[in-house]
Queue: 4 jobs
Job 1
Amino acid sequence: MTYRKQAIIAVDQVRSEYRVAAWAVARSQHDAEVDPTILHLPQIELSEIRRCSMELEASYFVRLFAVFESNLRQIWEQAMGRDTHPPVRDLLDGCAARQAVPDDILEKAHRVRIYRNSLVHGGEAARVTLGDARQYLCTFLGRMPPVW
């Protein structure tokens, strides 16, 4: 049994972990720029740290959405008694319809889905920040049943 609050906390924790990772990467980059010799033992290049820094938010964005999707699939199966495995677009629409989620909340969740798809599969999509994604997805989860 999963509680809605647990699902929201799980999404929040991904964003918190991102903040820690971003700080650690920025600190490592700074330290390596000041003293490049610290990179010799782990055999890391400064360019790798910079690339990691540039891609970090996208990596955590995908993870954040994965946690959300996993919970949504549990809701679909356990709280709504469905045994199908629809694409995420249909899953969002179906859960929203059953829980009377307002259109603006559903639209924001779809914006996150579309941006996540662009990160994973390529293509163009309006950028959504990790903070906004967390807010939109937690708001959507807040409309789901209290227990599943």
Job 2
Amino acid sequence: MGTAPALAAGTWTLEPATARAAFAARNFAVKTVDGAIAVTGATVEVDAAGRPVRLVASLDPASIDTGHPRRDKDLRGRRFLDVAAHPGLELTATRFVATADGWRTDAVLRVHGHDVELPLHGHLPDGVPSGDRVRVTGTARLDLRAAGIRVPGFMVGRYVDITVSAHFIRPTSVH
């Protein structure tokens, strides 16, 4: 077990304007496609010992942007994210393990109608916050097959690497 930095107890809420979820996927031609998807909301509950105990986040698959409108339309379509049938992506995590620089959790991502286990590593790149605002960075690797997304490998490889960066705020106490 590591020595992750402690956070102030309470519920930390995402500042949506600061959130960015970037992804990178490779195909068998070894071409990497980068893109982004909007993080529309998130909360992190922190216990009295300063450890995260619950994370809930929402992403908007209709916002997917790779800089190529035709590809983006395909990604929103039935073969990939099927936004018409699944208009949101939801991530939840309830078990966190401290690491040397943050936490690791096996989150569950609801994508394309499937619950997919998503190993997620989060850390505080600026160190322990001194106030009621903190920047968090998380990284994960999504297995498309586990999500029920099956497309030819020349289109996209099996794994998608995800990096999320966001600021969270903790409401100040009112006495």
Job 3
Amino acid sequence: MTRILIVLCTFAVTATAAEDSWLKVKQLKTGVELRVYKKAAKQPVNAMFDEATDENLVVMIKNEQLAIPKDEIDRIDFRAPKSMARITKESRTVVKDQDTAAPRMPGSSPGPSTTTSSGVTFSGKGDFETVYRRMPSLK
């Protein structure tokens, strides 16, 4: 009898953990990048999150909407949006005093010279994090 109670308690805890992680999937924002690992698939499905229901995960793949049944999903990873800007702009200005002893062009006056440069830096995307993992069935 005690063994049956332990198995039932373990099943209840496992089912609750799976439901809690599915609730996290439901709370993702539309447009979040996902990797969906389906049962017996060699490669994950790369998609954008649209919505999650109790039965399905609805994703966008190349402008097409696809519903993946929850019971076919082993794991879902998502890429957390970065809090920092992905594009960084920078500019630099250098002012140099011109040497008055240097030869000048006729009609020019000695004075400072200015050099300006600018650039853009693109930062990489964040790492994927697991948001859902199907719990193994107890048999």
Job 4
Amino acid sequence: MATKYRVNSETCVACGVCVEVCPVAAISADPYAIDPIICNVCGECVAVCPTEAIEEYEYTPPEPPGPPVIVRTSLALNLIMKVE
């Protein structure tokens, strides 16, 4: 887990100041949200938010997908099936 930021939609007034100061463009508008993958937790948005709508939370990244599944077929079987 890692500490990240998120926008509290109940206290956000959609002023857009956070979007302007974010150095990595991690904040999107409509609705205002911070991408936890892009965010580098610099705190610039927290410092400028007039309503203190940006809060910390413990982010758990999604589990990576498992290894790819390789499906092997027999060329001979495909040919037999096509002939029939």
